[in-house]
Amino acid sequence: MTLTWFNSFDRLFVPLLKEVPKHAVAHSHQLLLRGGYIWQAGSGLYALLPMANRVVQRLQSLVRAELNAIGSQECVLPAITDKHLWQQSGRWQEAGDELFRLEDRKGAAYCLAATHEETVTALVSSLVSSHRSLPLYLYQMQPKYRDEMRPRYGLLRCREFMMKDMYTFDSSEQDARATYAKVVECYQRILQRLGVPFAKVQADTGLIGGSLSHEFQIKAEIGEDELIFCDTCNQAANIEKIDGLIDACPHASPSPSTSPRPPSASCSWTTSKGIEVGHAFLLGTKYSTVFDAAFLDADSQRQDIHMGCYGLGLTRMLSAVAEAQHDAEGLIWPIAMAPFVVSIASVGRMNTFKDEKCRALYEVLNSRPELSDLIVLDTRDMSPRHKLANSRMVGIPFTVLVGDWFDSEHLEVYARTSHDKQDMSVEEFVSLLSSPALHNTSQIGYA
Amino acid sequence: MTLTWFNSFDRLFVPLLKEVPKHAVAHSHQLLLRGGYIWQAGSGLYALLPMANRVVQRLQSLVRAELNAIGSQECVLPAITDKHLWQQSGRWQEAGDELFRLEDRKGAAYCLAATHEETVTALVSSLVSSHRSLPLYLYQMQPKYRDEMRPRYGLLRCREFMMKDMYTFDSSEQDARATYAKVVECYQRILQRLGVPFAKVQADTGLIGGSLSHEFQIKAEIGEDELIFCDTCNQAANIEKIDGLIDACPHASPSPSTSPRPPSASCSWTTSKGIEVGHAFLLGTKYSTVFDAAFLDADSQRQDIHMGCYGLGLTRMLSAVAEAQHDAEGLIWPIAMAPFVVSIASVGRMNTFKDEKCRALYEVLNSRPELSDLIVLDTRDMSPRHKLANSRMVGIPFTVLVGDWFDSEHLEVYARTSHDKQDMSVEEFVSLLSSPALHNTSQIGYA
Description:
2 copies of one chain form a homodimer. By secondary structure, the first copy, chain A, is of the alpha+beta class.
């Protein structure tokens, strides 16, 4: 199929706002509103406009690829969930006011699932009976619901949000622990590919329950948790739980210490606040015993299934990354999340020469599989200064100016992270855009 | 990235059922349960297991590509919708018991959106002010909710379902009519690419309102509408509205007639029942006047925006296509919707030779962009007869048997639509799988 459709700012719906409401106090909230990414439909309820939808879909693709690579399978579970399921687990009571509840026309009671342990365990109980079906890793990427007391900070704490939740089913505690290690490693790979500063933090198990739990935190000053990070190994601990970091971080001195200072000269601990974007729980048989999720082992003995659950807040990650990476000019997306990677902006009144050069460059870049659908034209009747400022505000990593002087050996490239113009050939630009270092895949064993 | 992950029936979660519940009377419902595609979580509430999720995602990709090609942009709108929005349009009352309603912890009232005219018009009212932002086509692919009195037939009539809904905004009635024609043509292209018998039917405007409306129906005996189809031009009419077909079908004789018989010898009208899978409405200014969605034209005059809305029931299409295409052995997916296009099945005990040949064939096929992630290995310890029967039950279009006799010049290929073995080389097979005719893109102007 030849290219019949160009992404172009002429037609894209990116309604930039000059003023944002006063209640938008978080930088990420202000920038996502100003940049035409989100629209508030109600308290804690947001529409994702086309630019935010692109970022979420890029996140979904990246997460899907990494989860599939460890043998996970995607499914869809209903949001409307029978009260009886949540009564069986005891969470119908426990969840209190945070659960949205409703009745159907016949008076039957339901909740909008905040999480799907009950549903997926009932499903597995009904469909799995043999050890040959295990291990089984099922995940979903769907809206979930929580009736927050104080929704705030835009997508950081809202009432309808896009989650990736994975539920794992193993035939023994040992296998479930191996799965836990595999998924935690997978989460680290996902966050490394995003290229934002994050840490793995030992955590409490809370309402979900279980015996082992980690959080994944993105460093940002608006975060609710005060953490100590080791920048060398991406480990961290809550400031009240410094022992956890000393156990986990190879850069700590061997003797336990309760001081929040680096225990050895070779390590680089810093304190920061963090935003939780992911959570891993080893659940054991907490839910499988309730819903009778069991299997016959190779000796035809009945055994309970061992579970884990693993969440990633996809819309929350948008805001968390926007908190972690921005400046006075606007958003700064990592390559792996950017709605577009390159904007090609014409300078001065359009003519045949510039039109041809813009489109030719678009096709060269867009034909690279890793850049497909990630290039956008900006041929609006607007000054180059204004176009660059727009591009920097919405956080596009690279902008190329195309004027009458255009020469494919000497592109004018502006990176979002610098103010200097870079001079390079089309070939050099393509090779820069395709380099593993830029996509953060160089250091983590991608073939 | 080299291939590290193979799709394989060894690991895929495809829980085949031998017996289906008695209340599952529709063929599609029985087959989707038997084939391990869906699991019932409650009345009118279904989980999409990995195979159904694959079919829905393929549908989504196809629909997304066609909608983007006419300049549409994807967004996400919240399901939880403020009562006041629906009161403004009058539908809070009109929708009656079909609307799921709920209250939050503070007692504020909401519904779960069955459709998003109110939300998207309020959004456009708030973010669009100039003719330069028009036309604007916004679409979403999300779960929607309807509290059906009698949920039945699996995904055909359920209470939580995946919809593609598009809302279009134009600056004049004339432009809105041109948009209407463009989207209706786009829908026809989508259904042609699926390769299932369908028809465009003039329809009532009902609760949504507006001045012009068409339905898209897939022919199936379980459908609720009795239709007369012209098989030559894919037009159809409700049997009570034969005049509509006579107006629309170029194969009708020019003189109006109320007889349900073909009015001319050259046409081929047949009667059949149909399942509605798509609906188009020209809305005019019905919603824009309510929500004050207006713009300033080139002369700075304030004008109401002209709207259209266009639905496609994505999960419903799964069931509709399964109704339209199946036989006693199971499902028959069109290439464009199949969860996998080719199953590569080993014959007899696995050995190094067969393992190598299976994987090599997998890589050759999977490396074609149009077949990427659509190939599956079947190396289970099971008779070839059993593997073929499984493959036919879940509806995979082609199965290749790989035994010790394997010869890349003479593959053993079994098509789902025939019982005969076909003998062809790998090269011929690849060329068959990539032919535009098989993907139904040959006759509809794809470059």
